[in-house]
Amino acid sequence: MRTPDHLEGDAARKVALLDLTYPELENLVLSLGQPRYRAAQTAEWLYKHLASDFKEMHNLPLALRDRLAEVSEIERLTPREEINSQDRLTRKVLFSLPDGHTIESVLMHYKRRHTVCLSTQVGCPIGCPFCATGHSGFERDLSPGEIVEQVLYFARELHEAGQRLTNLVFMGMGEPFLNWEATWKAICALTDPRRFGLGARHITISTVGFVPGIEALAQKKSQVGLAISLHAANDNLRETLVPLNRRYPLEVLMGACQDYVKQTGRRITFEYALIERLNDSPSHAQELAGLLSGLLCHVNLIPLNPTAECAWRGSPKDVVLAFQRELLKEGVPVTVRIDRGLDIQAGCGQLRSRRGTCQVK
Ligand code: SAH
Ligand code: SF4
Hints:
By secondary structure, the chain is of the alpha/beta class.
C-alpha cells in the first residue's frame, strides 16, 4: 500500500479532508489502496450526512476508516463562544482555528430561508474605519476547508432542528476576492452535487470593490451572486469610508460592474450603510441614483451598526426611509435591510473585536 509522500515522516500533520478538491480526495483514497468509489462514499459522509467522525462512516471498511483517521482529519474549527439574539433569529459563533486565531460566522433565520454568513480571512487588510474586522488588522487567509467547515457546522445544527440551510453569503470577516483561490475552491465544494450540492444562485459574494475579483467572478460564468459594498457615490466620500477606493476609484469600479452585467446578465446588489450626517442626505441619494442609472442592480440600505471602535452612528429610521423614497423616485430598486442581531453584535467582526478607536485618514 502506497502512502502519500506528504504524510510520510510527518504523522503529526494530517491532511485536512475539507481542503481537498474532489480529484484530490480520490487520489487520497487511491493512495490508501482503496477503489475510487470509496471517495464518493467518503464525500457523501462528509458533505451530505455531515459526519464529523470517521466512526460514523459505517459503509466504509473499518481498515479504511482507521487509515483515514490516521492520515487525515475532518474538523479544524472549535466553537468557543455562541450567542443568540433575543428574538432567537440570529445566532453568532466564534470559532478558534488550529493556530489559535479566531473567526466569526452567523446563522440568520428568515421566514423561508436559513442563511449562513461566512468569513474568508482572519481579520481584513482593507481597514474600513466603520468595520470591526477592519480594525482588528489582518492575520491570514482561511483555507478552503476552514470556509467549508463553517457551513457544515451550521448545516448540522439546522439538520438536528429538522431544517435545511438554504443560502450562503460571504459577508463575514475578510475580503473574499483577496482570498479568491480558497473562496472559489470552497464554493466548488459547496455547489458540487457529489458534495454539499447547494445551488450556486443561493450564494452571494460581497466585495468592497476589488476589481480583479469582479472580473474573475464574471469569467466563471456561474450563478453565484455579486454584492458590492458601495456606501458612497463620490470618490471623496468613498475614500473616507473605503480605503481601497484610492486604488479602484468609482469610475473603474462602475466600469467593472457594467462589464460584469454585460458578461453575466446578472443583477448586482449594492450595499449602502447609512451613516448619520455623513452619507445619508437626499442629495446623496440622488447622487447614488445618478451613479447607478442604466445599470441592472438593486440597492440594499443598512443603517450602520454601531461599533466600539468608531464614533459614527447609523442613520435614524426616518432618514433611512427618506433616503429610500428618494431612490424609488429616481427609479432605483431598493430595500432596507432589517437590523439583524444588533443585541449580539452581529456586525462583521464585532464579537471578536476587543480594541481600537475610530481613525479616519
Ligand atoms: N469585505 C467584504 C465582505 C465582508 S463585510 C465587503 O466589505 O463587502 C460585509 C458587509 O458588512 C459589507 O457590506 C460591509 O460594508 C458591512 N459592514 C461592515 N461593518 C459594518 C457596520 N458597522 N455596519 C453596517 N455594515 C457593516
Ligand atoms: Fe474588510 Fe469588508 Fe470590513 Fe472593509 S467592510 S474592513 S473590506 S471586511
